[in-house]
Specification:
The complex is a heterotrimer of chains A (167), B (343) and C (305). Chain B has 343 residues and is of the alpha/beta class. Chain B contains ten helices and 16 strands. In chain B, 30% of the residues lie in helices and 22% in strands. Chain B has an eight-stranded parallel β-barrel with strand order 1-2-3-4-5-6-7-15, surrounded by six helices. A three-stranded antiparallel beta sheet of chain B has the order 9-10-11, with no helix packed on it. Chain B has a two-stranded antiparallel sheet with strand order 12-13. Chain C has 305 residues and is an alpha/beta fold. In chain C, helix 1 runs parallel beside helix 3 and helix 10 runs antiparallel to helix 11. Classes of the chains: A alpha+beta (167), B alpha/beta (343), C alpha/beta (305).
């Protein structure tokens, strides 16, 4: 899939958004999002099976941060780190922020992104496949859930990103 | 009353569009995108896409069937693996559950499972899975005669002429693949995965299980795909990748020492250009592969083919070029359907 | 019942002389009980040896061997279908082993054998096919011990004798495409019979040079050789009565004799292993499928090496 021409411009947007936010502020927000999604979509954990305790490292390639997701049903956690402090993990999912978001949102096909080398997978492949499949069963928009956390500004930005993506 | 016919509309029977669903969300997506029937399976070895995080719990199956039926969509339950001796009860339980929930048909491959359905649920339609590896009128008619099979899913290895010839000689409906994974190994007769991983495609419903897949990318972004103890393929930086399935790997042999796709290229099947011809010869159902794919894939492929089939019925053409983005290695083929030169 | 050895059909494209020589030796120099004849992989090859089957069968029968004709494993085009029909028509006078569901339509109601390509995985499938006239079944090589055990119990009740391959490359997959032709940049229709160059199959290595698989026309086999010498006793105890040796270019007479000695308890599985190695098998042995492991694995058993 040749990338739509507009994309390179807008994929920088999240970095711009996140840059001024210090880590100590970002961390509770990330955790809040994770807790909220976990509560809203409990069946996600059943689908994850044994991988609820897997440590997923999520690496947006165009943002100088990494996230460690542990789906753990009772207390799902999402911690944010500087790339230089990458924590121990079982599986890695790496790709541009917008692709990761669109996959989370069910608007992109993970396999297609992988075939296209837009997505890199490392470590426990089964865990990644399982998470992908579990998230794919979440209806409604996870991205919208995230945007909601940021209030009207978040929803505006998401709408903007989507419109651009749809063009 | 006279019915005014649209001048160009085609007269052949409209085929059923049979679509994949790996999760309830995908199923609802397929229904919404215009599937006539959706095929799916339980979360165990009874179906040939027994992948982690995929498929339906009994509760999800029941609710999904109710939802599909409300929307006039059929549910075809895939119970298309071969139970090994001693474990067949799991397959019978899956059949009984499906019957209880009101599935519209079972898709089966194993003769033992087929005879159980024929004996215990004779009123539910039986479809012969491609996993049964039946490719001749004789083989297909055997299943029709013995088990009352109502529809056969033909392997992806036949030309349109061959499909047509088979249709003239079989006693039931014919379903063919139109989009998805392009495999040339005879389905239902492949133990390659089991040879490498200890998990069987026929008995466990897995093909290149993710639990034994490793992706290794070096600093230059060269990607190796590894299954069990074997390197299946290596991709240079930027080169489109494929699934780590053994039959799509690159290997060496004395006459091809540099490495080559010994079995097949990582291609996807897309017969959209031949769709009018398939419909013309009277294929009863058109199947889209991909229960393991995302609902984004389901939405795009199903709605594209929905429009294509409807257009062709109206005398129009199929325009689904955009589907290339969803194909493996970003390459597609009309595969066997056009000619048998590839054999 | 006394356990018996069988020789499976020659899977590879051997020359006429090579085949004639092979069957002569099997007839004259081994205690093999049953010999399966026939081209089961590629109908294009069949024409080369068709005219010799009668004389080979004759010779084998005179040497006290039972002869069974095996049918094509993959039936696709008209030529294949005709061959199947012809074989099935002989079933009144000859024993037939079917390897594809196409043959079932013709042979149902008549006595026949089921080949290892037939996907007979469970007791219900076996019962269905036994009711159609199957009296002998070679089980798929990927079936694990637990399932063989249950199959044997039901087979006995159904009056079906069971067979398992115990030596030779494992048949792993069939395709509509000829991979030998493909390797030589040819197609199946214009293949020039390049498969003749590889009498044990064409070895495929991974890109990092690990031996992996063997190509035989449309068939894919294991690189390693199945060797169930350590499991032979257990298979007998489970109720399997026939043990198949799949022909290769190693000394098959010696191989048959080693397995016979093993069945007669005159050598140990450990000795047998060394002797089979000496017949000219350089490739690794494997027995993983039987132990419900990856088929390429070598599982060390209690009694064996």
């Amino acid at each position: 899939m040749p990338l739509p021409k507009h994309m390179p411009k807008f994929e920088k947007l999240p970095a711009l958004l996140l840059k001024p936010v210090p880590l100590f502020l970002l961390r509770p927000i990330a955790q809040h999002i994770t807790t909220k999604i976990g509560k809203k979509h409990p069946h996600l954990f059943a689908r994850l099976g044994k991988h609820t305790s897997t440590r997923y490292l999520i690496k947006p390639t165009n943002i100088p941060l990494v996230a460690l997701l542990i789906p753990n049903q009772q207390t799902p956690t999402m911690q944010i780190f500087k790339p230089s402090q990458t924590p121990a993990h079982d599986a890695v999912i790496e790709g541009k922020f917008l692709f990761l978001l669109s996959m989370l949102d069910g608007t992109s096909d993970g396999d297609a992104l992988f075939f296209n080398r837009e997505l890199t997978i490392g470590g426990d492949t089964e865990a990644v496949v399982c998470l992908r499949n579990a998230l794919d069963d979440v209806e409604g928009s996870v991205a919208a859930d995230i945007a909601d956390v940021f209030g009207p500004a978040g929803r505006t930005i998401l709408g903007f990103l989507r419109r651009k993506e749809a063009q | 009353m006279t019915i005014k016919m649209k001048p160009k509309a085609n007269k052949f029977t409209k085929p059923e569009l049979v679509c994949p669903a790996g999760t309830p969300a995908s199923m609802r997506t397929a229904v919404e995108a215009g599937a006539d029937a959706v095929y799916c399976g339980f979360q165990n070895a009874t179906n040939a896409r027994n992948f982690p995080g995929l498929n339906f719990t009994p509760d999800e199956m029941q609710k999904s069937i109710i939802h599909a039926h409300k929307n006039d969509t059929k549910i075809l339950l895939a119970i298309n693996t071969n139970p090994p001796a001693g474990k067949i009860q799991l397959w019978k339980d899956a059949v009984d559950l499906g019957a209880k929930f009101g599935v519209d048909a079972f898709i089966v491959a194993d003769m033992g499972v087929a005879s159980y359905i024929a004996a215990h649920h004779p009123n539910i339609r039986l479809h012969l899975s491609v996993q049964a590896a039946a490719s001749t009128p004789e083989a297909l008619n055997y299943y029709c005669q013995q088990f009352g099979v109502k529809r056969v899913v033909l392997p992806r290895i036949l030309t349109i002429a061959e499909i047509k010839a088979i249709m003239q000689q079989v006693e039931c409906e014919v379903e063919t693949f139109i989009f998805g994974n392009h495999g040339l190994m005879v389905e239902g007769r492949c133990s390659l995965t089991n040879y490498v991983t200890g998990l069987s495609t026929n008995m466990d419903g897995v093909c290149s299980p993710a639990s034994q897949v490793k992706y290794e990318q070096d600093e230059d972004k060269n990607l190796s795909t590894i299954l069990g103890e074997y390197t299946i393929d290596c991709f240079d930086k930027g080169e489109n990748a494929g699934y780590p399935t053994i039959c799509k790997g690159r290997y060496r042999t004395p006459v091809r020492d540099a490495g080559y796709y010994a079995f097949e290229e990582p291609l996807s099947l897309n017969v959209s250009n031949l769709l009018p011809e398939l419909m013309q010869i009277g294929v009863s159902a058109l199947k889209i592969e991909g229960r393991q794919r995302s609902r984004a894939y389901v939405k795009k492929v199903v709605s594209s083919f929905r429009a294509a089939v409807d257009n062709i019925m109206q005398g129009g053409t199929a325009d689904i070029a955009s589907l290339i983005a969803l194909t493996e290695g970003h390459k597609q083929t009309e595969g066997a359907f056009k000619s048998k030169k590839w054999r | 019942m006394q356990p018996k050895l069988t020789i499976g059909p020659i899977l590879f494209h051997w020359s006429v002389d090579q085949k004639l020589d092979f069957y002569k030796k099997i007839a004259d120099e081994t205690d093999i009980d049953t010999v399966y004849l026939g081209e089961i992989i590629c109908s294009k090859r069949a024409v080369f040896f068709d005219q010799y089957y009668e004389q080979v069968a004759d010779k084998l029968k005179r040497a006290g061997k039972k002869v069974v004709y095996s049918t094509l494993a993959e039936v696709l085009i008209k030529r294949d279908r005709n061959i199947i029909q012809d074989f099935c028509d002989m079933s009144e006078t000859e024993e037939i082993e079917v390897n594809d569901a196409s043959a079932l339509l013709h042979i149902s109601g008549k006595a026949h054998r089921l080949g290892p390509m037939m996907n007979v995985y469970n007791e219900d499938t076996l019962a269905h096919l036994a009711a159609q006239g199957a009296y002998h079944a070679s089980l798929p090589c990927e079936l694990p011990r637990q399932s063989i055990k249950i199959m044997a119990v039901h087979a006995k009740k159904l009056g079906v004798s069971l067979e398992m391959q115990v030596f030779g490359r494992m048949p792993l997959a069939l395709s509509a495409r000829c991979y030998h032709a493909r390797a030589h940049k040819l197609t199946k229709d214009g293949c020039q019979f390049v498969c003749e160059q590889d009498p044990d199959g064409m070895v495929l290595k991974t890109l990092d040079n690990k031996e992996f698989l063997a190509i035989n026309g449309i068939q894919t086999l294991s690189y390693s050789f199945l060797n169930l010498t350590n499991e032979l006793k257990q298979l007998q105890n489970l109720g399997v009565e026939y043990f198949r040796l799949s022909p290769h270019t190693n000394d098959m007479v010696a191989t048959a004799n080693v397995f016979n000695q093993l069945l007669n308890d005159t050598i140990s599985p450990r000795e047998a292993m060394f002797k089979i190695r000496d017949t000219g098998v350089k490739e690794p042995f494997a027995n993983g499928f039987y132990h419900q492991k990856a088929g390429n694995q070598w599982v060390i058993t209690q009694n064996g090496s």
